[in-house]
Design goal:
Blueprint: H1 2-11, H2 16-41, H3 53-61, H4 78-84
Helix pairs in contact: 1-2
Amino acid sequence: MLAPVTLALILAGLSPYAVLAFFISAITAKKLTDSIPVAVAGIPGGVMAAPMVEPAMVLKSHGLSHQSIKKWLPVQSSVQLYLFL
């Protein structure tokens, strides 16, 4: 999604410095967004990790945060999480 917007900015005739500033700020924002689930709950970052933050916090409070990154663990809702524990 970043490449088409950057290309549109280049084709619009923006200064190379403005395009570079946009590119660097977009990459920085993406990295900051990906680091939030890691910092809060200890799960891998990304857009798909946002719904898993609350169940991962419950796992963390029980000392099982290492299990939240296993693919077989159904952490879609708190109900499933409590059934697992």
